[in-house]
């Protein structure tokens, strides 16, 4: 079971997921900033 988890979360995939999370956070903060200006 643990080996299976290690296989599914390979390094490139984990990095990609982190990138996506960062992009989502940036998008959300931009939207909040725009709403504050309006």
Automatic annotation (TrEMBL):
The region called Disordered is annotated at: 1-23
Q: What is this protein called?
A: Uncharacterized protein
Native species: Lentzea xinjiangensis
């Amino acid at each position: 079971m643990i080996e299976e988890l290690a296989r599914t979360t390979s390094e490139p995939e984990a990095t990609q997921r982190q990138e996506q999370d960062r992009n989502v956070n940036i998008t959300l903060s931009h939207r909040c900033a725009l709403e504050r200006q309006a």
